[in-house]
Amino acid sequence: MRLPVRNDECPVHGGPRVAHSTVTETPVITTSGLTKVYESRGRQVTALDGVDLHVREGEVYGVIGQSGAGKSSLIRCVNLLERPTSGTVTVDGVDLTALAGRSRRAGKDLRQARSRIGMVFQHFNLLSSRTVKDNIELPLEILGVPGAERSRRALELLDLVGLADKAKAYPGQLSGGQKQRVGIARALAGNPKVLLSDEATSALDPETTRSILQLLRDLNRQLGLTVLLITHEMDVVKTICDSAALMQRGRIVESGTVSELLATPGSQLAAELFPVSGHSTGPDRTVVDVTFHGEAATQPVISQLSRTYNIDISILGAAMDTVGGRQIGRMRIELPGRYEDNVVPVGFLREQGLQVEVVEEEPEQPGTREPQEHGAAAGTPLLVEEGAK
Ligand SMILES: Nc1ncnc2c1ncn2[C@@H]1O[C@H](COP(=O)(O)OP(=O)(O)OP(=O)(O)O)[C@@H](O)[C@H]1O
Ligand SMILES: [Mg+2]
Prior knowledge:
With 389 residues, the protein is of the alpha/beta class. The protein has 2 domains: 27-261, P-loop containing nucleotide triphosphate hydrolases (Rossmann fold); 270-388, Alpha-Beta Plaits, CATH 3.30.70.260. The chain has helices at residues 71-78, 96-100, 108-114, 132-142, 147-160, 176-188, 206-223, 234-240, 258-262, 268-273, 301-309, 343-351, and strands spanning 27-40, 43-56, 60-65, 86-91, 94-95, 117-120, 194-198, 226-231, 243-248, 251-257, 285-293, 314-323, 326-336, 355-359. Adenosine-5'-triphosphate (ATP) is lined by residues 38, 40, 45, 47, 65, 67-73, 232, 388-389.
């Protein structure tokens, strides 16, 4: 899949973006039957229950779910910070579970394989007694990289994340967004193939969140870095992910590229990524959600439908948005008559290449409407509670 090309300047280094990174079909992270059971005070908690995850080279893959769904357990099992109870984890062709062996301490082979996996944390995890530059050098010290080489690499990374002037500052002198940039630079020190991010933007305000997401996207494009990120914010998925998975109670219940999800009738993720609302105005009406993307977005299909079948169409709700870098429109329309009367017009919409979903809903009683918060589609449960953290 070729990603859309952006031709504006890169905020990371001021030069032109290297924009056309390609997602290949090569799997970079694969988990198979991944299970994690924690033993806690004699009780067993199943945090992961047979997770099969496939992340392709060069993509930004988001895992979303409510608090307690198992997201952090998944990411910690992917780099073997947490030992899986069963199942396998393969990163960049190396079976990490096989390398882990039985001992509690990671052996040399596992440490080596892990150096190809960068990790970014919600609370940055910087050492307050070390300068920014020394924080970035830390993983290189552990890998035994000589001093001059460490220093050169740290300065290069600081430049890459836009903090060239902060080398000598201490973490306490930085804003949250700057600390996370240092966290990202440190994660990149070992020249990783993949970057894992556990809620990297959850502690940041919306504007700083946007700039950090943009940085992750730029790094993904410039370095061909594969990013697996965990979040409970749908906006994060919407802004930067090529693919996404929804986790519930330790299982992945939906997954795919953002386009595939949007094209899947009944997808919970699609409804959350792109909500439309609006209630039918009475009984004997057919309410239909129509999603426009690509070519179809430019065709006057609604007026064609109205003229061809001589019917009056009401628009109950509509939205345009950019999801996964693509312009998408969604409209909730109402046709007179029951569904049985509208099979032909609905078929017409499908023939135009539109994604069409008939919305089943109870006709509304006067005065009983619940306020529609978060713009969620009628009847769609919210996946992600506000403030779930
Ligand atoms: N070290 C542990 N010992 C015992 N139980 C644990 C441990 N870590 C996590 N759990 C449990 O495993 C389940 C999944 O936790 P996890 O931290 O993976 O969820 P999460 O999706 O990351 O949630 P959040 O969005 O709140 O970070 C929860 O029920 C949690 O209480
Ligand atoms: Mg978590």
